[in-house]
What does this fold into?
Amino acid sequence: MGSRNKISASILLFIFGFILSGSVFAQRRNTAKMNLTCNIPAIALVDFASSDLRTVTYNSSLLDPNQVEQLVSDGATDGTTWINYSSIVRNGTTNYITAEVSSGELPGDMTLNLYVSPDNGEGAGSKGTACGQMVLTSYPQIIISNIGSCFTGRGLNRGHHLRYEWRSIDNENVIEKPHGNIVSVTYTISSTE
Amino acid sequence: MLGTSAAAISLQLTTTTAGNQISGGTGTGYAQVSSIVSSGETRTITAAVTGVPTGTSLSVTTTPPSGGNSGGVLGTGSSNASLVNGASAVTLVTGIGSCYTGAASTDGYTLDYTWSSALGSYGSIVASAGATATVVLTITNIP
It folds into this structure.
């Protein structure tokens, strides 16, 4: 009698355990996972927007989307030119933009000054810090620094306004009369990486 | 019962135009279901996510199947449900009764993901390759 009860109890326990494990198994299959692989490539792109076709032209090479060139001719060039950029940086790095006189000869009795305004507030993210005013040379100089992940928006009144000014060599006088000098200025966006 | 394909869905945010915001993160997944309910009972599918990269946002539009492999009471889907890291699970499908979707990898509820850059936190975006966000889908009973 005693052993029959023990066997009955064992069978009951076994069946109960089986039912429990079955229901746990069903609960596990009530959830499923989907994995999404998320890629964000680093980018550094620069371009112009300009409404002054008389004095400036620009071209951007498809091979170098991080570099654009602007042709600057004589006289007061307060033509409307804006520099736009898009930037995505890796951890611990930033992008920056340099400017240099890339072709043509700077006359010996004049300087070419570039004025770069702060970002106009469109777009989003960590825009760069503008240099304010710079005397351009044939060596690249940083005109916008500390660019993080951001975009300025595209077109006029987006990004930083650029203005050129020819001055006498002593930087005293602004030269507004035509003097026939034409140079190209190249802007390049690069990473501190 | 709920199941999905093991293959990861690939999403990318980028631009090739200077001045523009990064964009373009779209991808589709499928969830297969077999369901038998008691009288008066319905089920829902909810979703919770982890691992969405900083400075970005994820949403999903869920559509019940209508093809020949499916049948029964498949419920109602939802549009642009926002999936936020660590937030409570959001409801994607309601009113699921007794139904089946088919078991092939492209059978079942369609989940169309939209991954985009967030303007308010754009400056916190960091370039990355192969980061994985995980969406956990759950089918639950509503007695």
